[in-house]
UniProtKB/TrEMBL annotation, chains A, B:
InterPro entries: ATPase_NBD (IPR043129), HTH_MarR-typ (IPR000835), ROK (IPR000600), ROK_cs (IPR049874), WH-like_DNA-bd_sf (IPR036388), WH_DNA-bd_sf (IPR036390). PROSITE patterns: ROK. It comes from Actinacidiphila yanglinensis. The keyword Kinase applies. Belongs to the ROK (NagC/XylR) family. This is Sugar kinase of the NBD/HSP70 family, may contain an N-terminal HTH domain. The keyword Kinase applies. Keywords: Kinase, Transferase. It holds the Pfam family MarR_2.
Length: 413, 413
């Protein structure tokens, strides 16, 4: 339970990750520059760079302009050094991507999930589609590190299970990690969708996502991912960033936990669509062109967001109301964590990025810390709509290559 | 901005901290047991133990019962290995303590602050009192490491300044770190009161405070301290744990940030005392024996808490209402951070620990994660009322001896 010690082999692995991270963040950098960037000696930098070149993770990519003496060789990451598969599992569909070490998407596919009541069939279907997609990309199988799964929470991280996920009715405890491992024959990692999205931003975002940030993820539900000092917060039970139970001004909605002041029930696409009819009548829904059925939530949400973007007043009103509640929760989270950046992303954000960023920005910048000491920057995902699936693939790459505390020490028994 | 690397000297310092931490946590432990506890080799353990003995930080404290072979020598921390001064600065008074390495209070004093408008006089007064108190304890000056200051936020950690603290009217940017350094002639560290209290719990609480927890601090204002995986969260601007801007159900109070749904304005002693008169009339205030003036807030709060403890209905009502709002904020914070323990403490908690724990416990254990995966334990401070001042002293001891990420690596420029 207390902190574990460290030793030389761990230090070697850690410093290798530090140097790879510095090269990835810089894009192109010389050995000489790496020493001050990492705080390591030139001798250590040379040795590690040799190992990274041999492993095919970086390449010599040219020379810096001469500054009098010998021209410095520049190092860059090799995109084809490693690959990973990412799966974003949502009640509506699974999005599958194959990405390279740089985070670029080589191939992607959306698989509609129909037989949602049977987790085994869902896994079989998704694994088969992932296999076909990977074959099509012709990546070197020896460099394909594994499959990352982004799933709605809650999850039991130790057991690798999702546990009674509210968005997958009928699912109890489902051992997704083991099931995907068996179905893909590859190493598998799993985390909740918002945390995975934050890992993707950290992995791919370079300098723009160094340090600390709160990632707010809008999908079927709402969630958050937390990065503090370049380290992803997983939490005691692997459920850090559960955002739906943040307290907001109460209305007439009841959360599955019994509360009337939980954020979750007020800001899901289904909830905001219901608000539209409740506040502006059926006529507004018809005018905007909403089907209004439970099955059409996914499609209706897109229609509603497009209407809001072109300025339709009723659509803007309900989306702004939801955005203000998200802002209330974000204000508390930012004050608690003291992060200077909030990133918004997820499939359900499409078309309403501007309204969301505006409301969240206003809310998080009211506190005394924000006004007297530092503003909080509110930004859109650098990855965009596929942040869940790309983040899931990053889970594998980040877990293997990002310099983390766990590489150096492990908690003692 | 990316992660820095590590090297052998850093590893040596870190492993020494790990072993001291393991000995402190265990209380008494043999060299043989330390290897599996820390994940270090017996050779490393032997070398580090020799250094810790020579530094006077631990002692050989007896022998384990024989289990056949040679009896094992047991190691214990030396309470007199190091000392620190702690100062808790509140608008009402400063509490000063001298503590030893084990966290035991050797001497303490409360200094009423009268000329609050003049920070220089406050510092001079407190520093003089600290000097007299330290002289009285006759601790070895060579082992007195410094003075820790717990101050209401917000603070500018980089500059060592408090910045427009709402509870110190008239204070702008006050460079407390520099002022106390000059006045005491000792190394000084400073952090906000709730974070400092959490550090104290972590430093002194042993196994009971290993891992992760959220500390909720009730003083003149409300604040939180956050410990994640044995590491204190300071935040990007050293203001992590600002709890007063967590959103709660709105009422008729306006926060200095303009919000009507910020926790802070509803749960300070002054606010709860005002609630009593508003909800139960002047007669209730008189019956309980409250003076009802601005100057008497500190004394009235104690009277109100005593009344609540003996079951006075109006007193219980307003305190339970405040506790429920704290519970709302705690639920969101616990879900966000995914910690399995909440600790309540601070001077203003005296007498109402039971009501507070009950309401917070009910609130944080409603979420799906709490119900399906793990309960959240809600506990009182192991240090008690002086947690702010003792925590301030721990800031010095913890900063010097606790094994932390910063010992191993430093962020690159």
């Amino acid at each position: 339970m207390t902190q574990g010690g460290t030793n030389l082999p761990r230090v070697g692995g850690y410093n290798q990750a530090v140097i790879l991270d510095a090269i990835r963040t810089a894009g192109q950098v010389s050995r000489v520059e790496l020493a001050p960037l990492t705080g390591l000696t030139s001798q250590t930098v040379s040795n590690v760079v040799r190992r990274l070149l041999a492993a095919g993770l970086i390449t010599e990519s040219g020379h810096a302009p001469s500054s009098g003496g010998k021209r410095r060789t520049l190092l860059s990451p090799r995109a084809d050094g490693a690959f990973a598969v990412g799966v974003q599992l949502d009640p509506d569909a699974a999005v599958i991507v194959v990405v390279d070490l740089s985070g670029e998407v080589l191939a992607s596919r959306r698989v509609r999930l129909t037989d949602l009541g049977d987790p085994a069939r869902v896994v079989a279907r998704v694994a088969a589609a992932a296999r076909r997609l990977t074959a099509r990309t012709r990546v070197d199988p020896a460099r394909l590190l594994g499959t990352g799964i982004a799933t709605p929470g809650p999850i039991d991280g130790t057991a690798g299970e999702v546990v009674l996920p509210p968005n997958f009715p009928g699912w109890g405890r489902v051992p997704l990690l083991e099931m995907f491992g068996a179905a893909t024959g590859m190493p598998v990692a799993m985390d909740n969708d918002a945390t995975v999205a934050a890992i993707g931003e950290r992995w791919i975002g370079g300098r723009a996502r160094a340090g600390s940030f709160l990632f707010i993820y809008l999908g079927t539900g709402i969630g958050a991912g937390i990065v503090l000092n370049n380290t992803v917060l997983h939490g005691d039970s692997s459920n850090a960033g559960e955002f739906g139970h943040m307290t907001v001004e109460p209305g007439d909605r009841t959360c599955h936990c019994g509360g009337t002041n939980c954020l979750g029930p007020y800001v899901s696409p289904a909830a905001v669509l219901a608000d539209l009819t409740a506040r502006h009548g059926r006529s507004a829904a018809e005018r905007i062109g909403l089907a209004g059925t439970d099955e059409a939530v996914h499609a209706d949400w897109k229609v509603l967001c497009r209407a809001a973007r072109r300025g339709e007043p009723a659509a803007r009103d309900v989306i702004r109301t939801a955005a203000a509640r998200i802002g209330q929760a974000a204000r508390g989270a930012v004050a608690l964590l003291d992060v200077d950046r909030v990133v918004l992303g997820g499939e359900a954000l499409r078309g309403i990025e501007a309204i969301m960023c505006e409301e969240v920005d206003a809310a998080v910048n009211t506190t005394s810390v924000a006004r007297a000491i530092r503003r909080v920057s509110v930004e859109r995902s650098v990855i965009g709509e596929a942040v869940g699936a790309v983040g899931a693939a990053s889970l594998i790459l980040h877990g293997r290559y990002a310099p983390g505390w766990r590489m150096l020490t492990q908690p003692s028994p």
